[in-house]
Amino acid sequence: MNQLKLKDCINKIVNNTIIHDIHTHLFPPSFEDLFLCGIDEILTYHYLIAEVLRVSNVKPKEFWKLEKHKQADHVWQELFIKRSPLSEASTGVLIILNKLNIPLYKDLNKIREKFSLITGNKEEYVKRILDIANIQNIVMTNDPFNDAENKYWNNLFFDKNSYFQTSLRLDGLFNHKNTAIKLNNKLFSLDNSEKITDFLLDCIELINPLYLAVSFSNEFKYPADDKINQILTETILPLAKEKNLPLSIMLGAKRSINSELRLAGDGVCTFGINNLEKLCSDYKDNKFLITMLSRENQYELTVLARKFSNIMPFGVWWFLNNPLFISEITRMRTSLLGFSYIPQHSDSRVLEHLIYKWGNFKIILNSILLEHYTKLLELGWDLTESDIKRDVVNLYSANFLEFLDRK
Ligand code: FIX
Ligand code: ZN
Q1: Dihedral of CA 400/22/244/174: which sign?
Q2: What is the CATH number of domain 38-118?
Q3: CA torsion angle for 190, 193, 199, 205 (degrees, to 10)?
Q4: Fewer Cβ atoms within 10 A, N terminus or C terminus of the chain?
Q5: Which ligand is nearest to the CA of 143?
Q6: CA–CA separation, 331 vs 364, rounded Å?
Q7: What is the CATH number of domain 3-37+119-405?
Q8: Does the Cβ of 347 fall within 6 Å of ligand 1?
Q9: Alpha carbon 255 to chain centroid, angstroms
Q10: Ligand 1 and 146: CB distance under 6 A
Q11: What pTM was estimated for this model as a whole?
């Protein structure tokens, strides 16, 4: 294969291979209010809210009193009209509009009109967006402690054949104020490990997750004589092992450092990698999907993954999800791990986010693959189109699916 053919071949494969998006906050249309799409939802994404509240004169308390379309008007005015939309999240809005063939009107109402013409049939619209991004499956973040979501599970609303798949988010076990919770019309008390295990078994039965998930700031220490360690070691880890479910641990989000900003108020902290090292070493029969929020932690995590095959690093999370860090982290991971990691997840909260988050990632992946494969060709390696296809399939889906299946 020559250099020119290589470029076209990579481009075609990167854009046409189907993706398994392993962590999102999306829901299918059957979850009614939780299914988010359209320009007002896109503009009131918490990434943009954080950006607007630092430049506008409207105080957070006032902003939250506005109706959603007024909040969207405000974001549009401040971040797109009064200033150029340069940040990753605001450029993302323009990418979405481009891909949906909606002109970049400065008048937001005109954009709203265009959206109203295409979002009418929600199921068809989901299919359209997934086709644009070339995504086959989306993993939701299913939180039994969230009342707004819980009611759908209680009524067995979920269509198990949809593109949407499930994961069981358990942060609520550590933060939950009450010791009782209702799930599927059953009341569970969560005051000891045995009862928590019963609750988790019912959640797993009901939600049928691909993996269990938690997030921790650097306040999580392992080992330690505290409630987190007790819940983790007496309930979550034994169950995850028994059911052969990976535990996804998202490390380094410091929650609510400015609570006035609500969901937009979380920050970042570096995490003591020695805690993760000890955990993965003590629980070699458990599988861990790990993503870390701090840039400083990325190299250590990658080195740790070389030592522990029960660690699968995934995604370039949240504030890191911009070209500079995606490029740096993906290059570093590839140099140390080959393609034995999961390079990206979208973390989309609004359906159309899939378009820009995956679109941006593919541009970077394209150039990284070109560099790596060029080197192989220069060294005389016999590289075929099907080799490249196999590698991209591994990155986009197979590494995840094989990790799930691994015993
Ligand atoms: O904890 C998480 O899953 C985070 O991804 C979210 O809490 C965060 O708000 C987010 O949407 C980041 O992209
Ligand atoms: Zn998330």
Answers
A1: positive
A2: 1.10.2020.10
A3: 170
A4: C
A5: 1
A6: 10
A7: 3.20.20.140
A8: yes
A9: 17
A10: no
A11: 0.98
Nearest bound ligand to the CA of residue 23: 2
The per-residue pLDDT for range 94-108, each reduced to its tens digit, is: 999 999 999 999 999
Token pair for 122: 């929600």
Distance 318 CA to ligand 1 centre (A): 7
Task: Give residue for tokens 């080799």.
Answer: 387
Q: What's the CA gap between 189 and 281, in Å, rounded?
A: 32
Q: How far is the CA of 16 from the centre of ligand 2 (A)?
A: 25
Q: How is residue 337 written in tokens?
A: 């791990």
Nearest CA to 404 among 227, 139, 62, 60?
139
Distance between CA atoms of residues 380 and 37, nearest Å: 48
Alpha-carbon gap, residue 303 to 301, rounded angstroms: 5
How far apart are alpha carbons 268 and 252 in whole angstroms?
A: 6
Q: Please give the distance, rounded to the nearest whole angstrom, from the Cα atom of residue 219 to the centre of ligand 1.
A: 18
**Segment 71-92, tens digit of pLDDT:** 999 999 999 999 999 999 999 9
Closest ligand 1 atom to residue 321 Cα is 13
The DSSP line for 320-332 is G-SHHHHHHHHHH
Q: Which atom of ligand 1 is nearest to the CA of 347?
A: 13
**What is the distance between the alpha carbons of residues 241 and 286, in angstroms, rounded to a whole number?**
5
| Cβ atoms of 355 and 368 closer than 8 Å | no
Q: Where are the chain's structural domains? A: 3-37+119-405, 38-118
In the predicted structure, residue 22 carries a pLDDT above the cut 70: yes
Atom 8 of ligand 1, residue of closest alpha carbon: 318
Residues 139/24, Cβ–Cβ less than 8 Å: yes
Q: Write phi, then psi, for 57 (nearest 5 degrees).
A: -85, -10
| Ligand 1 centroid, distance to 388 Cα (angstroms) | 32
